[in-house]
Design brief:
By secondary structure, the protein is of the alpha/beta class. It folds into two domains: 5-113 and 309-332, ornithine cyclodeaminase, domain 1 (2-Layer Sandwich), CATH 3.30.1780; 129-306, Rossmann fold (3-Layer(aba) Sandwich). 31% of the residues lie in helices and 25% in strands. The chain has helices at 11-17, 21-36, 111-129, 144-157, 169-183, 193-197, 265-269, 282-286, 308-325; strands at residues 5-9, 40-48, 56-65, 70-79, 90-97, 104-109, 136-140, 161-165, 188-189, 202-205, 226-229, 246-249, 280-281, 300-303, 329-332. The longest helix has 19 residues, at 111-129. It comes from Azospirillum endophyticum. This is Ornithine cyclodeaminase family protein.
């Protein structure tokens, strides 16, 4: 049997490769287009809960992106109190495989990938679903994915005003300072949810709750806004979907009844959101099969649970760039 080798990219390798904003957006958009065109395989994520969901759990995401010739499995831990130990709340590994033979291709530190791909899906959702003249962003949450939400959204919209909020003052203030420095514009840390959200053109809710709590009030949402909630534990009111002209998800298979967690879990389980009244999956819109925003007056909700396809696409982009630049290691597998 011929030797089998795999590529290994650790965290410093991923940082050194430094995918640009445009490289990140292009890779994830390619995966969304493939999904919308029926050129992918997605299996709903599964969870491993070591003790309680309030403390933390593992997500296992699986998929195939046929145009890239890659299958992948990502395991990501989501542990709310990790900041007390000086650790990220989310840490992940990505395994890539040849979907024709099953042979392993790569092992990648996917902590940064998880943050980048989440931000890219948020931004690409806004590209198709937010008003083109959106000037104010209100962002709840300051975890790792939050940075890329704001950075990539601002890349597309160049906001006049960015507001951020999170539960801990040191977290929200540090988050605002980092964004102000990196984006080269003022970012305001608000002391409460309402000040952050009310009147914003785009609202992103990426909170870290131990249990569901309706902290984001429907009455704060401006007509014509785009709302993007994706916290593991819901922070929205049941009435939120009542004011929406369209509701879009990343993958209905991960949103349907019977699955745990998610910002709109109660809306699905109660029948307020179903496959029948869902407008589209984002991939269908990216592929041109369904409409995105059709008028400035539409109020739209985009709920994304997290796609294995975007992890796989970014892993593939990192491998290609690593090969060009000579970054990473080759490990003997068999």
């Amino acid at each position: 049997m011929a030797d089998i080798n795999i590529s290994y990219l650790n965290g410093p390798d991923v940082e050194r490769l430094a995918l640009t904003d445009d490289e990140i957006l292009a890779a994830v958009e390619q995966a969304l287009h493939a999904q919308g065109s029926g050129q992918t395989v997605i299996e709903p994520r599964v969870h491993l809960i070591p003790e309680t969901s309030a403390k933390g759990h593992f997500n296992v995401l699986r998929g195939v992106v046929k145009p890239l010739g890659v299958a992948g499995v990502k395991v990501v831990g989501d542990f709310v109190e990790n900041y007390r130990r000086g650790l990220p709340s989310e840490m992940a590994v990505l395994n890539l495989f040849d979907p024709e033979t099953g042979m392993p291709k790569a092992f990648i530190d996917a902590t940064g990938i998880t943050e980048m791909r989440t931000g890219a899906v948020t931004a690409l959702g806004a590209k198709h679903l937010a008003r083109k003249d959106s000037r104010i962003l209100g962002h709840i949450g300051a975890r790792g994915t939050a940075y890329w939400n704001v950075r990539l959204l601002d890349r597309l919209f160049d906001f006049d005003e960015i507001r951020v909020h999170s539960r801990r003052p040191e977290s929200r203030n540090g988050f605002a300072e980092r964004l102000s420095r990196d984006l080269g514009k003022p970012v305001v840390a608000t002391e409460d949810w309402e000040t952050c959200v009310r009147g914003a053109d785009i609202v992103v809710e990426a909170s870290r709750l131990h249990e569901p709590a309706p902290l984001l009030k429907t009455e704060w949402i401006a007509k014509g806004a785009l709302v993007v909630p994706y916290g593991t534990m819901s922070a929205v009111e049941l009435s939120l979907t009542d004011i929406m002209d369209k509701t879009v998800v990343d993958d209905w298979g991960q949103c349907r009844k019977g699955l745990p967690f998610g910002a709109l879990r109660a809306h699905v389980d109660s029948g307020r959101l179903s496959e029948e009244n869902l407008h589209a999956e984002l991939g269908q819109i990216v592929a041109g099969l369904r409409s995105g925003r059709e008028s400035d007056g539409e109020t739209i909700l985009f709920w994304h649970r997290g796609l294995s396809l975007s992890d796989i696409a970014l892993g593939h982009a990192l491998l290609e760039k690593a090969a060009r630049l000579g970054v990473g290691q080759t490990l003997r597998f068999a």
